[in-house]
Amino acid sequence: MLSRPGPAFFYWLLLLVVAAAAAIELVRAHQDRMHLATGRAAWIWYPSYSPEPRPLHFWATRDFDLPRKPGRALAKVFVDREHVLFVNGQRVGGGTQHTGDPLALYEIADLLVEGRNRVAVEAASSTGTGGVLLALDIEGFGRDALVTDGSWRVDLVPSALAEGGRYRPVVWGKPPQHPWGYPRMPRPNELGAGK
């Protein structure tokens, strides 16, 4: 190979291009992980199986205690496809999200109280499949102080909003999960979502 400079040149050029592409992908993957806005949060969903796609509408709830009312609390939410966020029974906001969309952000400190609190996500999918991802940053209690995981409860009945869900969710796992990847924080021009 070295005795023939033409093919050797193209071999080394091809090797360099492949190595550069691999390095770029490694850097991108590292940047995604470094900018993971939802920390320990895992994708959850209602535990149902249907061989045919059909609509699903359910509530995911989580109770938690606070020793004092926080000054700030930011909920970062992504639900494939539709969601409405409730805090202590009060509707905060909602929307529709698709793969590649940014997280919806909600400032919820005004709705939190000292003592017992409940966060609820009303989720819906026209096909019955999807994922719910939520991470709550609470001033004085840390980033991702509350995250979606197996401790949440899910239910099909609207009374779950007031009483909490009765069933354990399916936990798909932490990002990146197909098809959602790493949900990202919104860019400045996307900040209208979830407000």
Would you mind describing this structure in some detail?
- By secondary structure, this protein is α+β, with helices and mostly antiparallel strands.
- It has helices at residues 5-34, 160-163, and strands spanning 43-45, 56-66, 73-80, 82-87, 90-96, 104-107, 115-125, 131-138, 142-147, 153-155, 170-173.
- The chain folds into 2 domains: 1-34; 43-190, Galactose-binding domain-like (Jelly Rolls).
- It contains 2 helices and 11 strands.
- The longest helix has 30 residues, at 5-34.
- It starts with a helix and ends in a 22-residue tail after the last strand.
- The mean pLDDT is 90.
Structurally, how many domains make up the residues?
2
Q: How would the global form be characterised? A: elongated
Order of helices and strands: HEEEEEEEEEEHE
* Assigned CATH class of the largest domain: Mainly Beta
Tell me the CATH topology of the largest domain: Jelly Rolls
Would you report the number of β strands? 11
Strand content: 35-45%
> What would you say the CATH architecture of the largest domain is?
Sandwich
Strand order of the largest sheet: 5-4-7-2-10
